[in-house]
Design brief:
By secondary structure, the protein is of the alpha+beta class. The protein is 26% helix and 23% strand. The chain has two domains: 241 residues, FAD/NAD(P)-binding domain (3-Layer(bba) Sandwich); 95 residues, no CATH class. It has a five-stranded parallel beta sheet, covered by helices on one side. 53% of the residues are buried. It binds flavin-adenine dinucleotide. Flavin-adenine dinucleotide binds next to helix 1, strand 3 and helix 11.
């Protein structure tokens, strides 16, 4: 039986582990924190615009388990908000255990609090990876789904400092890229002004810190759009956003709040003192990142060069998916590329006799 090790348990890694298991491999999924889903723990928007088609295609092709789970765990469906139609919002507070259960049902061995720190490479192949503490895990094929957010140094160098986000670098250690450890030169995304990386485009507010009127509307309709007074608009900040679909003028003129379990605010940073001048937000406080007033995590630092099969350049048995594989990625893209990478890690493995 082919053994596949997937490194990084965000949406991409979960999807890769699932499709590799479905393709008949023995699969181990390694995640450095105590939770799966990575940045998927704070997102929630899916099926918006073209992502609807991507989800339907994945379901039709037999790889839809994770989208079906998101659908089943949605707080709101078919919501429209500026620039977006027919979006669904999965509940970010309850999604992770459902995904974990699905993977376990398919026989995926999940190891959390397990951080990969190095690789064992021979010629153009990876023989194994080394985890914190020195243990080496060998496999026939590997999938790098370590994402592009963190370590803290990147947020300090390219962003506004560590905003204490869901990546939780101080608690679980920095992200380590398998691709970089395999000595493959990675690509870096650039902001509008040419500087490195992009700032994640949303923050979470504590729902109980909103006025009752806003909270009730958010929970019943899924979306609240608050017009901003001219003097506190942040038009100049739109170009820093990772998600360009939220970099349109509506997001400077308004505060857009979405109900994903938390109150997801579609603005990556807004000083608390300005935020609290908006009627109904006088008591507002950030939930994630905890220092949301100064920003959110920096992403797109460390993308693996790869081909259309998602095989990493110059390494025969290393595949990649999600943010590791491309710029401008969300949950949907992470899942569909994860499905492809996991499947290909089995189907294209030189050790594959069965597929
Ligand atoms: C604040 C915020 C809000 C967002 N909102 C949305 C949204 O509403 N809708 C949407 O579609 N997209 C959203 N996105 C984008 C979306 O979350 C990501 O593009 C997508 O989920 C990326 O998935 P991934 O698996 O590629 O990477 P990640 O989610 O970054 O996962 C990578 C995982 O790898 C782990 N890891 C890293 N290094 C190691 C190592 N050495 N060993 C073991 N594990 C390791 C990390 O701990 C992490 O769990 C949002 C992003 C952010 C930051």
């Amino acid at each position: 039986m082919i053994k596949v090790v997937v490194v990084g348990g965000g949406w991409a890694g979960c999807a890769a582990a699932l499709s590799a298991a479905k393709a008949g491999a023995q699969v181990m999924l390694l995640e450095r924190t105590d939770l799966l889903l990575g940045t998927g723990l704070v997102g929630g928007i899916f099926r918006n615009n073209g992502r609807y088609t991507a989800a339907e295609e994945a379901i039709a092709m037999g790889g839809g388990d994770l989208f079906v789970a998101m659908d089943a765990n949605s707080r709101h469906r078919a919501v429209s908000f500026p620039g977006h139609s027919h979006a669904s919002f999965y509940d970010v507070t309850t999604m992770e255990p459902l995904v974990k259960k699905i993977l376990q049902n398919y026989g995926v061995e999940i190891k959390t609090k397990t951080r990969v720190v190095d690789v064992i490479k021979y010629g153009k192949k990876l023989q194994g990876i080394m985890i914190d503490g020195g243990e080496v895990i060998k496999a026939d094929a590997f999938v790098d789904t370590t994402g592009t957010a963190g370590p803290m140094g990147n947020c300090l160098t390219y962003g506004n400092g560590c905003a204490m986000c869901v990546i939780r670098c101080p608690s679980f250690g920095p992200r380590v890229s398998v691709t970089a450890k395999a000595e493959v030169k990675e690509l870096m995304g650039l902001k509008d002004d040419g500087s490195i990386g992009a700032m994640s485009g949303s923050c979470k507010l504590n729902k109980d810190s909103l006025s009752n009127e806003i909270k009730d509307k958010l929970e019943s309709e899924g979306v609240v759009v608050l017009s901003l007074p001219e003097n506190i608009r942040k038009s100049g900040s739109l170009g820093k956003k990772a998600c360009t679909q939220y970099a349109i003028a509506d997001y400077a003129q308004n505060l857009v709040l979405l109900d994903t379990g938390h109150a997801k605010m579609m603005t990556s940073y807004f000083p608390l003192e300005d935020l609290r001048t908006v009627p109904g937000l006088e008591r507002a406080r950030y939930e994630d990142p905890y220092a949301g007033g100064i920003g959110n995590s920096m992403r797109y630092i460390g993308i693996a060069p790869c081909n259309d099969l998602l095989k990493v350049d110059s390494i025969d048995n290393l595949f990649c998916a999600g943010e590791k594989a491309a710029i401008m990625v969300g949950h949907t893209e992470a899942v569909v590329t994860g499905l492809l990478a996991g499947h290909n890690a089995v189907a294209l493995s030189p050790y594959c006799y069965a597929v």
